[in-house]
């Protein structure tokens, strides 16, 4: 798949159909897309809120991640975790590429269906669901859904007795940035009881899922979890179930992880473990979110204010930018991210990708709200910048804009799209 040329009719058709008719997509580098935007801003000459923060989304990067997945984990079907970034262009592209969707709510199921996903390509992967949402899933024939407790089974029996249930088991998430096991996942010593309850209720359990935690940095967490899932398959078989689905969840790193535990390392452990333990008739899916989107979005912020200080005769600066912790940068709190600013424009000089060879000063970078928690980077160094200059922030595609608020009246930034695949 990686050998497909971007000018092949298949690829260009896919990328073309993935475009939303009312949203333009440039075909330039991220650098040029940002440059075009900044140039257009300076022509506006103070007529509008021209210095508002903005985001550039690169659908070509999402496509590259798709190719990488197909090349390295060909057996495992990705169901994109919509929660990580329900951006319409991303969802449309992944839908056109035939991906499935992991949805956490009625609204996410609606997004997937409206984009054209077949209900059979959706898994409602939230073990604790609102009753009316289960009814909605039933109306829409979205049959696959996860559970991890007996109460959920009684609820599902009431609202969707023919659902195809996937038992989410608890696995070791200690090597992940965001651990989910404290909230979800059936401990292994409850599996017998849950399967027996499902049997007594005449429910259709079709397989096992797990989630090693988001931002996993141990490739063996995946293989250990697959081993545990095998044990549950065996148990279920002994009880008369005929399992057909393994869901290896999310947790896959984004493209910016180039040392440590990369996607390549995880794939090299996960793929062979799945093949060794599960015969080809078992369908294997995954729920990657961050993997597809993190590296595809760049946030550009304007320096709206500066405060200068002198500490022991050393100048230092506090820069205030117009997107913050309550906006796209909520990932600092909710997703445990550390973000790094880069100079985008200084005194009108476009500096994307440049290491400016001038004196750097100690500084901190703050969001625009009146809350002191709204700090993006407490201590870094940057050249001397002024109000009106710009910073950019890479790898801002996962768990960012989608979980932002409008606290203090600051709106989510505009998103521009480009496709760098060709
Ligand atoms: N699946 C479920 C059930 C999740 O809760 C999450 C994230 O919270 C994901 C998939 C996506 O995880 P990631 O973005 O780490 O791949």
Report what the structure shows.
There is one protein chain. By secondary structure, the protein is of the alpha/beta class. It folds into two domains: 9-57 and 296-418, Lyase, Ornithine Decarboxylase, Chain A, domain 1; 60-293, TIM Barrel. It is 30% helix and 24% strand. It contains twelve helices and 20 strands. Helix 3 (59-72) packs parallel to helix 4 and helix 9 (219-238) packs parallel to helix 10 (263-277). Its cofactor is pyridoxal 5'-phosphate. Residues 60-294 form the Orn/DAP/Arg decarboxylase 2 N-terminal domain.
In DSSP terms (H or I, runs of 4 or more residues), the helix count works out at: 12
- CATH architectural type of the largest domain: Alpha-Beta Barrel
Major pleated sheet: 10 strands, mixed
Silhouette: elongated
CATH topology of the largest domain: TIM Barrel
Strand content: 15-25%
Bound small-molecule species: pyridoxal-5'-phosphate
Number of domains: 2
- Measured as a percent range, the helix fraction is 25-40%
CATH class of the largest domain: Alpha Beta
Q: CATH superfamily of the largest domain, called what?
A: Alanine racemase
Evaluate the radius of gyration.
23 Å
Which ranges are low-confidence, i.e. pLDDT below 50, for 5 or more consecutive residues?
none
Structural class estimated from helices and strands: alpha/beta
Mean pLDDT: 94
- CA distance, first residue to last residue: 15 Å
Q: How many strand segments?
A: 20
